[in-house]
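Records of this kind hold a single protein each, on a pair of labelled lines. Below, a sample record shows both lines together.
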Amino acid sequence: MDRNIHIRDMESRDYMSVAAVWRDVFGPLPLADESVVSTCEKMKADSRYRVFVADIDGAVVGLAATVESLAINLPNGFIKVNGLGVLPQFRHRGIGRMLMERVEKLAGERSISVVELGSGFQRTDAHAFYEHLGYRKNAFRFSKRI
């Protein structure tokens, strides 16, 4: 594990780097750069959202985007990871684990006992990684674009 990896909150100077990591890991964003900036600003202004970045010598090489939500059956709510990604050339260095540990620390800070995430069917390596961290498959996620 590299000692110069720093997990920190996303800052405004990171927006385009976060978008670049997202595009590299998850595919094209259907958004112009201005929309990415606007969305990141909205997330920074809303305490339910947190985006953590993995920084190596000032370069963003990974991210974990989260949102805190409420549920009837979870009185303290839960944290959903909306995206976890590390650039391919920086994988297998413990960065994904460090990002997820930071998410779990946030859950503890907020007295939240559940962290959940979704992952595309094709991301089988990611599924093995999540299971290695103790996450269990327990549902399918459905979506519909309106």
User: Anything to note?
Assistant: The mean pLDDT is 93. Strands lie at 5-9, 49-56, 59-71, 74-86, 115-117. The chain has four helices and five strands.
